[in-house]
Fold:
Amino acid sequence: MFGSLFKVYRLATRDYLHEWQMSACFMLGLAAVLGPMMVLFGLKFGIVGAMMDQLIEDPGNREIRPIGSGRFDQTWLESVRGRPDVAFLVPRTRSIAATIELSSTHSSRIVPVELIASAAGDPLLAQDEPLAEGFDRLVLSRSTADKLAVSAGDMIDGSLARRYRGAQERVHLDLSVAAVAPEQAFSRDGAFVSVQLLEALEDFRDGRAVPELGWSGAPVQAERTYPGFRLYARSIDDVAGLREAFADIGVDVHTQVAGIELVKRMDRNLTAIYWAIAIIGLVGFSLSLGASLWANVDRKRKQLSVLRLVGFRTSDIVWFPMVQALYTAVLGWVLAVSIYYLTAWVINNMMAGQVEAGQLVCRLLPVHYAIALGLTCGAAVLAAGLAGMRSARIEPSEGLREI
Amino acid sequence: MSTESSASPDSRHSTIYLMRDVVKNREAKGVAFRLRVPHLHINRGEKIAVIGESGSGKSTLLDMLAFILQPSTAGSFRFRPDDDKEPIDIDACWQSDNLNILGDMRKRHIGYVMQTGGLLPYLSVHDNINLSRSVVGLGRDGTVEHLAEMLGIANQLKKLPDDLSTGERQRVAIGRALAHRPAIVIADEPTASLDPYAAENVMSLFLALAEEFNSTVILATHAWRHIKELGLRRLAHRTTHSQDRKLTETVVHG
Structure:
């Protein structure tokens, strides 16, 4: 059986090469339809894909912050943290109390910074960097680290003051720089610290005692509430749902829902437009490929009849047009990919100044090439198979009389 | 009925074809055609001529003998390519739609020369001749070269059919039909497209090679005048038309 198939394969190959002009026409016809479709999809995937990537990669788009001040206790925060659509939540103390003055031995500057509550899994910080934890470890923003001329592992001094019972008091903390946050995490002067340290600083400023740090004052209140929080949804698709959930319980929040929705709507619209064009193109492509392969098989009825006459079986003969169709499909695909590469290169170079560095306006993933090849081969085999079956069913005598 | 034979039907075992009451009906453009074969008996080694005007059913008979056209009805249609084996019921093969058996028998036992050669344009002369051998799995043993030498095309083996004259293409077709040493060679007006001199030459070569290869020959031809001198047995035939010319019937027996 395989011997016959191999013979048919060789005959089909020799015929394909012998009729190289006709073969080239079939191949060009296929590439002329497939190439522009790949460029079209590359543009859609490149433009919208980059916007979607930006949306997904920037944690700021998943951030949810309450508008104004509230009173959120630990129990409520824990219940929100337990939701499946919440990736990260950390409480926030009063902004006015969340500041500290930092200095280092490497710099003469005293830098007043904002303090941002942080914890394990903070999306703003690199996940493999050491954490801000306890009373003595913090993560500096890039600008703060630059001003203090310090890097991870350095020790710095933190100081804050309060007026307590008519007297001015100032305390100092020895702080260790656990890491320096990336520029995009926080662009101003700031430091990521543990909730524990933030609470201690707030207590000190409010005149309460912080026994862990040896700071005296009024006794600590029994139950702490927080005026706000910093929350990140698990994905950009969860942001709208969380906003509605907060609205239902009377908590107004600030989100990037509008921006997310704009990009998603653009994706939907462009996808719809692409598919409308692609379906028309696919139908045209399939008809063109099918018609040309069908015509090719019909043209070869005489030769196929001769092959049957000399003893090839019907099941062998069907492979003859199939092999040739596969050649057309694969070579046409290679040509279409070449057309795509050339066009994408021109487009990306033309648009290079208008997009971010490294971003491509027109791009495809390896899986897209594979899908294009699979669809092309599938359509080719189907068309050639149907035509081949029809041809193989004719009586050899019928084909021979057409000579 | 008149018969002239080069090999007498001396024994039952030498019978290669036996047809009884075989009918093939065809219709084209409102005109029906019927080929009837009340009795046909062909012996091994015979050289048979099928003669008749155009449209009289010569090709239809040859196609049935080559198992590429199914009879409409058949009282009996037997084929015995090998004396040591039982005859094969061709009609039963057709009835059971077992076309692969018919195809296998065709490729092993039958060589077919078409009117216009039917060469594959993408194969060289050598590969065209060798095609029938390759299909049955025969290796190289010099047969192709010997045939090419005998047919006068030894210098053309590397050429493609398009580079040959009509006469040369027909010689290649004869070579292909004989290359696998079939028991039967069927030729459908193999010299129709040749000038008389070339036709005579090609026909003589063809019959000589068939003789050398011990093949039975069944030949459709217009060349009446050569039948006797080439030692062919002519099958008797009679063609009639209905009054309204809507039915043509040919009866062949021999």
